[in-house]
């Protein structure tokens, strides 16, 4: 790509330096449609808030400014300070869901999917790990949970489990820019603009809550974004979001009966829902 074309793309994308977090949670019906009210992560700050700044939502490990050789330390917490304890507001409440519900955790790709040329030293998008626990601790450390808790719940201190591993690039999401990937996806995954995504199509990770949860259940979203192998040993960048779900009495049972061709503004991802 010519330098001036790349430059034009970068200038057209004010968010190119921005990173990602869980913007919103939605319940998914078994037919794949988002239903009910949205829920939010702990201490959520809206992008529309006049005091909004990326640094009020992102949690990056190892933290900026630390000697890269040190990497992530055993004491580094999995949640940013504003998300260590359960905290929500009337405007941005927790998600309410039933045991066994399908849930979409939505994030913005910020060019990490559609403008790979903006981060040539990084792997495409990376991978998201979603952990769940009925018994969170405000001191939960990343290294005691990430790649330690397993699907059986027998990893580490056994307080939680790995619910799903999902690609950061869910195969369809895009933000509007002049890059080839975005242009191709705007055509392949057409939708009418709708709030809060506007013309963008947010990425998502779809999970299913365990059927034996009650009261409250905590989710840790861990995005691991590695460097391409280049002879330098560098730990992957990690970004996290921490959130709670209020569990309602009852249970969502049944098989996925996904309706193809539905409005992408409000649709889960069939392959992810069937993969559970
Ligand atoms: C899925 O079911 C919900 C009701 O649970 C309904 O509102 C929605 O329209 C359905 N979606 C499709 C694509 O049929």
**Alpha carbon gap, first and last residue:** 39 Å
Residues in helices, as a percent range: 10-25%
> How many beta-strand segments?
10
Radius of gyration: 18 Å
Listed once per kind, the bound small molecules are: 2-acetamido-2-deoxy-beta-D-glucopyranose
- Give the tally of structural domains: 1
What is the number of helical segments per DSSP (H or I, 4+ residues)?
A: 4
Instruction: Give the overall silhouette.
Output: globular
- Rounded average pLDDT: 93
Q: How would you classify the helix and strand content by structural class?
A: alpha+beta
Q: What is the helix/strand order?
A: HEEEEEEHEHEEEH
How much strand?
A: 15-25%
User: Segments where pLDDT lies below 50 for 5+ residues?
Assistant: 1-16
> Biggest β-sheet, characterized?
6 strands, mixed
Defining key terms:
276 residues; alpha+beta; 6-stranded mixed sheet; 4-stranded antiparallel sheet; globular; disordered N terminus; binds 2-acetamido-2-deoxy-beta-D-glucopyranose
Describe the protein in words:
The chain is an alpha+beta fold and 276 residues long. It has one domain (3-275). 10% of the residues lie in helices and 24% in strands. It has four helices and ten strands. Strands 3, 4, 6, 7, 9 and 10 form a six-stranded mixed β-sheet that branches. Strands 2-1-5-8 form a four-stranded antiparallel β-sheet, with no helix packed on it. The longest helix is centred in the first third of the chain and has 10 residues, at 3-12. The protein starts with a helix and ends with a helix. The structure holds 2-acetamido-2-deoxy-beta-D-glucopyranose (NAG). Residues 29, 31, 33, 35, 259, 262 line the site of 2-acetamido-2-deoxy-beta-D-glucopyranose (NAG).
